[in-house]
Predict the structure.
Amino acid sequence: MLNRRNLLSLGAAGLATAAAMPALAQEAQNGVEVADMTLGNPDAPVTLIEYASFTCPHCARFHSDVMPQLKAEYVDTGMINFVYREVYFDRPGLWAAMLARCGGEMRYFAIADMIYEKQREWNVPSQGGAVIANNLRTIGRAAGLGEAEMEACLSDGDMAQAMVAHYEKNMAEYEIRGTPGLVINGTVHGNMSFEQLKEQLDAQLES
């Protein structure tokens, strides 16, 4: 996992070559506020927090294999509050998170789904940072983001710093050993199948 200095170092691609974005309110850093992204019922008796990285293959599988059922059975029905927390193992993971946030709260999860779905196409380390950044821009265009909109996002260094500070605060809250990391009503779990996750959620809902 990279430290703050390495995450924010511009490198060959430069953060401005990637794709950045605005965020929501929760924590201020350099006058910029960042929030966890949420779905479902904030007043639900069960809160599920997912810690995930856009460059993590296991996270991509979780979002393709588990998330659709989780959303249909527990999130859309208002049974749980789902909180998504970004983890940055590397600069491309930070750039992807910035791109997802560029669409604002309403489009965040739709863009995130596209990033995960095309993970093997855009995140090819051997191609170098500049190519990865351009690959992310292609996803942004497909999601309906305009060039000027992406430029405004990607040039926001204060946002990048605020996102890294928010990530560091989140990682300090629970002892997350890998991604996806799942926290159900304060108890930390590792990656799970939908059946395993359903068992845990139902136990909490019945207690």
Remarks:
- Residues 127 and 173 are 35 Å apart (CA to CA).
- The first helix runs from residue 4 to 8.
- Strands lie at 27-29, 32-34, 37-40, 46-52, 80-86, 181-184, 187-189.
- The chain has a mean pLDDT of 87.
